UniProtKB/TrEMBL annotation:
Cofactor(s) needed: siroheme; [2Fe-2S] cluster; FAD; [4Fe-4S] cluster
Keyword Transmembrane helix: no
Binding locations of siroheme: C689
GO molecular function: 2 iron, 2 sulfur cluster binding; 4 iron, 4 sulfur cluster binding; flavin adenine dinucleotide binding; heme binding; metal ion binding; NADP binding; nitrite reductase activity; sulfite reductase (ferredoxin) activity
Catalytic activity entry: hydrogen sulfide + 6 oxidized [2Fe-2S]-[ferredoxin] + 3 H2O = sulfite + 6 reduced [2Fe-2S]-[ferredoxin] + 7 H(+)
Annotated EC: 1.8.7.1
Organism (species): Microbacterium faecale
All residue ranges annotated as the NADH-rubredoxin oxidoreductase C-terminal domain in the record: 330-390
Protein's name in the database: assimilatory sulfite reductase (ferredoxin)
Function: Catalyzes the reduction of sulfite to sulfide, a step in the biosynthesis of sulfur-containing amino acids and cofactors.
InterPro entries, per the entry: BFD-like_2Fe2S-bd_dom (IPR007419), BFD-like_2Fe2S-bd_dom_sf (IPR041854), FAD/NAD-bd_sf (IPR036188), FAD/NAD-binding_dom (IPR023753), FAD/NAD-linked_Rdtase_dimer_sf (IPR016156), NasD-like (IPR052034), NiRdtase/SiRdtase_haem-b_fer (IPR005117), Nit/Sulf_reduc_fer-like_dom_sf (IPR036136)
Phylogenetic classification of the source organism: Bacteria, Bacillati, Actinomycetota, Actinomycetes, Micrococcales
Length: 858
């Protein structure tokens, strides 16, 4: 094609993730004589369907929209909300529902799939949903809210289908406040990706999250109530269960109707047949993504679709790329549980060997599938802990290079073998980026860090599971080039957090301005200010609102409360070990009632009160402090809670006093500022009711004393803590935790939780043991002294603030009118409490309680 030839007209049917990738890739290759028209059925710009569930936790369609610049290009036209209804291959045109006829030189089908509903009576009743599009989730959310209002109670919900989408959907139902259950016809969850043992461990982990799992159960009918809305399910064994809402996740069907009508070759099971160049039986028509059937099948993952998009774009411009076949690998977080499966996960190869590690108490199942001579990695399954996935998936079909146990055992902590990866190994399966491409991004494209490599190659840009490996390879290549790998804290400090900590200790500087002048430049930023405030707090013991320190804090520290989405604050008093007296409960109840606060129990066993206005915080705290409560520091990068079970004092299985120890630990570490939040858990026996192994420090009682686990966390990337020491008495336990926390505080990066810190530490868990138990560096005494200083210097931040008129001046909504509350806060009543009003409620005037008029009884 040249500038003078007529433009090559590419028409894409379907405006989703794969179409977006195709257009992006085409633009990167195309000259100006190409035009692209993308025609989509959904009334949105292409959006991230993989992240769809975040829509239910507050993401807007805008947040989900994929890179808009692709459609801002003058060569690209997007017709959204106007489905194609016919392809006329003779005339080389497509016809849309609005009767527009669009001619093409090349047609690309990217129509994806639609969610299926089972063929059972009642599947179309109001209250039955599928889970595929923004509009599906929006209808589900509205229905749940409306039905809850009608019934005046929380709803129950059933997800039919226990595959990966079903588990995601039931987690989402839970987020909506619906008591969810999964009903699955197979013998175990995710039967397409996991073996029975892995599926069973997953089932137990899901049940621990208060989600009921019912396997080997077929739904035969869905019943309605008198209003015609869904009310119950009937199963194949004749049993029934009530339900208020049903979500079907029983599979998808390729949207191939257009292609069939146009007489393109299709598979009998569905899907438009393509060859390895993504061509259909008509050479002017390509198919990519979930609608395309290669080797007789379609696959419901985005990575193969992206690979097809790249091949199709390359071929249009005379390239020779071919689709290599499906890589079904997937790493997902389902209802909070890490699950990964890759390669020949179900060990179908003849004489394949399994190496399995399972920890039923901790809820971990890991399996590697090896060739019959145990030399070559064929695939694997991870449930509960998928940390090794990124390191192992690129090794499929290659020698493992280490004892399989090194990758599986919790204490193995095998590092990603980036250096051994051959150039052709696929590191990012979502975007088909090889180790060689990452290396060339550093050597040939001049990328100077992993972020630049990501932008340049798209490695790690989709699901992100390979980004640790991308960073590692990038760092290796930069080092090989003699370039330094930056560990600078931010643009104002070239030192890492650890170096800065040492510099502050040695220089004895005690102010931010002094530190900036001596070791940094400029005026500081949101990264270095709170980092230095946290270091100084530990070293100098200054109040967070003292002098210069007050200006350095994060938003929440700034007012010693957690800001909520409507701009109000939450208040969390400390309850060591989750204990609270009846009198204490009465005070909390009275405070919540008098200030109109919404109350809720937290996962860390304390009570959170929401909806406080800035100017109310001192009055609320005055009453709490008078009743003997302290700040729970739910706002700080510091100790949060020590969760505990009831232990030997009440429980017949308990072997040690878990509550007593939890209280002791919480009182010792309260107020301890650290690079990230710190959580502890104490269980009275191996049944682990306090879930201590999901904490930074987990303590479990045994007949021989306390076992200490370190480096666990929940959150976005859950990790199980690893066993550091066993059979400790009370003093040895506390000494070991003292040193572990202090060593972490001194050496971790900013916002690095204990798990990644431990993974980066020289020698890992063994290295930590050597430093804090064997005292290999001779610093154990310093660490003990530092903790002793912290314990001595502890002072409740809120009690101190109430005594200081200067500090109290910052708790005003409006600087010029200290007693005027913020009028933007508005609430409605729900289930006997208040919640923030939605935009529609504000506009409709149905707001019942507004911030300006809320009566405060004192
Ligand atoms: C909640 C959820 C979570 C997921 N999580 C993951 C994950 O973690 N990892 C993963 O790999 N995959 C995941 N997937 C699957 C992934 O989203 C799909 O594989 C991917 O979106 C496929 O993209 P596609 O472009 O081929 O098809 P689709 O996303 O189905 O898009 C096709 C588009 O074409 C439109 N269309 C259909 N017919 C017409 C027509 N006649 N005219 C115009 N437009 C038409 C459709 O309305 C749709 O917008 C998830 C899916 C869901 C629903
Ligand atoms: S962990 Fe053990 S001691 Fe604690 S409540 Fe559970 S069973 Fe009882």
């Amino acid at each position: 094609m040249t500038e003078t030839s007529p433009p090559h007209r590419v028409v894409v049917v379907g405006a989703s993730m794969v179409a977006h990738r195709f257009v992006e890739s085409l633009l990167a290759r195309a000259d100006t004589a190409t035009t692209v028209t993308v025609i989509g059925e959904e009334p949105h710009r292409p959006y991230d369907r993989v992240a769809l569930t975040s829509f239910l936790s507050g993401a807007t369609p805008d947040d989900l929209t994929l890179d808009r610049s692709v459609f801002d290009d003058h060569r690209v036209d997007l017709l959204a909300g106007d489905p194609v209804i016919r392809i006329d291959r003779g005339a080389a045109t497509v016809l849309t529902a609005s009767r527009a006829t669009v001619p093409y030189d090349t047609l690309v089908l990217a129509t994806g799939s639609s969610a299926a509903r089972p063929a059972v009576e009642g599947a179309d009743l109001p209250g039955c949903f599928v889970y595929r599009t923004i509009d599906d989730l929006s209808s589900l959310r509205e229905y749940v809210a409306e039905r809850e209002r009608q019934l005046g109670r929380p709803l129950t919900g059933k997800v039919i289908g226990g595959g990966l989408l079903g588990l995601e959907a039931v987690g989402a139902l839970q987020e909506l406040g619906v008591d969810g259950a999964v009903v699955h016809s197979g013998t175990h969850l995710m039967s397409a990706q996991l073996d029975r043992a892995g599926g069973d461990v997953l089932g137990r982990l899901i049940e621990r999250r208060d989600i009921t799992v019912r396997t080997s159960t077929r739904t035969t009918r869905i019943d309605a109530d008198r209003t015609g809305r869904v009310a119950g399910l009937e199963f194949h064994d004749g049993s029934r269960e009530p339900t208020d809402v049903v979500v079907f996740t029983v599979g998808v069907r390729p949207n191939d109707a257009l292609a069939r009508e146009a007489q393109l070759a299709c598979e009998s099971d569905g899907g438009v047949r393509i060859d390895d160049t993504c061509r259909t039986s008509d050479e002017r028509i390509l198919a990519i993504g979930e609608v395309a059937a290669f080797d007789g099948r379609c696959v419901g993952l985005v990575a193969p679709g992206y690979a097809m998009a790249e091949v199709a774009a390359d071929r249009l411009f005379g390239g020779s790329a071919t689709f290599p076949g499906y890589d079904d690998s997937a790493k997902l977080k389902l209802s909070g549980v890490d699950v990964a499966s890759f390669g020949d996960a179900l060990a179908t190869a003849p004489d394949a060997l399994d190496v399995v590690y399972t920890d039923p108490v901790g809820g971990v199942y890991k399996k590697l599938v090896l060739s019959d001579d145990a030399s070559t990695l064929l695939g694997g399954i991870f449930v509960g802990d998928a940390a090794s996935y990124g390191a192992l998936r690129p090794l499929v079909g290659r020698p493992l290079g280490a004892d399989p146990a090194a990758y599986l055992l919790p204490s193995g902590g095998m590092e990603a073998p980036a250096g051994e990866l051959p150039d052709e190994a696929i590191v990012c399966s979502c975007s088909s980026v090889t180790a060689g491409r990452i290396r060339s991004a550093v050597h040939e494209d001049g990328c100077a860090d992993a972020g630049e490599v990501k932008a340049c190659t798209k490695a790690g840009a989709t699901c992100g599971s390979c980004f640790a490996m991308v960073k590692k390879i990038t760092a290796q290549e930069l080092t090989a080039l003699g370039k330094s790998v930056s560990s600078a804290l931010c643009e104002h400090f070239d030192l890492s957090r650890r170096q800065l900590y040492d510099a502050i200790v040695v220089s004895r500087e005690t102010t931010f301005s002094g530190i900036l002048e001596r070791f940094g430049r400029g005026r500081g930023c949101d990264v270095c200010k709170p980092t230095i405030a946290s270091i100084l707090h530990g070293l100098v013991g200054e109040h967070v609102l003292d002098g210069e320190s007050a200006a350095l804090q994060d938003t929440n520290d700034h007012v010693m409360a957690n800001m909520q989405k409507d701009g109000s604050y939450s208040v969390v008093p400390r309850m060591p070990g989750g204990e609270v007296t009846p009198d204490g409960l009465v005070v909390i109840g009275e405070v919540a009632r008098d200030f109109g606060l919404y109350t809720k129990l937290t996962g860390g066993q304390r009570i959170d009160m929401f909806g406080a206005r800035l100017e109310q915080l001192p009055d609320i705290w005055r009453r709490l402090v008078e009743a003997g409560f302290e700040s729970g520091q739910a706002y700080g990068k510091s100790l949060r809670t020590v969760k505990s079970c009831v232990g030997s004092t009440w429980c017949r299985y308990g072997v040690l006093d878990a509550v007593g120890m939890a209280v002791r630990l919480e009182l010792r570490y309260r107020g301890l500022r650290s690079p990230h939040k710190l959580k502890l858990g104490v269980s009275g026996c191996a049944r682990e009711c306090a879930e201590a192994r999901s904490k930074d420090a987990g303590v479990i009682a045994t007949e021989n004393g306390w076992n200490l686990y370190v480096g666990g966390n929940g959150g976005f990337t859950p990790r199980h803590a690893q066993l550091l020491a066993e059979g400790l008495d009370d003093d040895a336990l506390i000494r070991t935790i003292d040193r572990y926390f202090m060593y972490y505080i001194r050496t971790a990066d900013r916002l690095q939780r204990t798990a990644p810190w431990l993974a980066d530490l020289d020698g890992g868990l063994d290295g930590l043991r050597e430093v804090i138990i064997d005292d290999s560096l001779g610093i154990a005494g310093d660490l003990d002294d530092a903790m002793a200083r912290h314990v001595d210097a502890y002072e409740d931040e809120w009690a101190a603030t109430l005594k200081d008129p200067d500090k109290l001046t910052r708790f005003h909504s409006f600087v010029n009118a200290p007693t005027t509350p913020d009028p933007s806060l508005a609430y409605v009543a729900e289930r006997g409490q208040v919640r923030p009003a939605s935009d529609e409620e504000r506009q409709s005037g149905s707001v019942m309680i507004a911030g300006t008029t809320l009566e405060v009884r004192q």
